[in-house]
Amino acid sequence: LKLQFLYFIDYIFANMVATWTDMKKSGAVTPSTGNGARVGINKGFKTTKRVRPVAAGKRLALQKNKLNAVKEVVQEAVGLCPYEKRLVELLKVGREKRALRFAKRRLGSFLRGKKKRELVSNMMRKQIKKKN
User: Fold this and answer.
1) Which of 15, 58, 61, 97 is the most exposed place for a label (fewest CB within 10 A)?
2) What are the backbone angles phi and psi of residue 28, rounded to the nearest 5°?
């Protein structure tokens, strides 16, 4: 259950914009394709671009400070899963490619595996900094 929760949280934070205000400023612009021609690639009536409101899903997928704090506390309290410990061992001996293959098989996709490998390697770097 813990693994499923962490995978879900990692999946949510995959592609996010920095803040809600940044997202609101950028907006979702509808492309104006028509150029007034009767034929051709851009045929159609000339229209003006209008800024559409940002979709609720994009807004709700923003990183939340409280949720990040909870994730950190849970990670510190619970520790690593057995497969994450094996990833740490593979990364310690310098077998990044093998670690990626292992993570990919355990998590189900290449991108999830890459993200998990980066997460574990960053965690290792932080631990080394704390020791020094």
Assistant:
1) 15
2) -110, 110
Q: What is the pLDDT of residue 58?
A: 81
Per-residue pLDDT at 11 = 55
Cα gap 128→115, rounded to integer Å: 20
**In terms of DSSP bridges, do strands 51-52 and 28-29 run parallel, antiparallel, or are they unpaired?**
antiparallel
CA 47 to chain centre: 35
The pair of three-digit structure tokens given for residue 85, joined into one six-digit string: 């410990």
pTM of the model: 0.54
Mean pLDDT by 10 residues, the chain (132 residues): 57 55 63 72 78 81 86 88 94 93 94 94 89 79
Contact (CB, 8 A) for 44 and 35: yes
Are 11 and 3 spatial neighbours (Cβ–Cβ below 8 Å)? no
Strand blocks (E) in the chain:
28-29, 51-52
Residues 6+ apart with CB under 8 A from 37: 43, 44
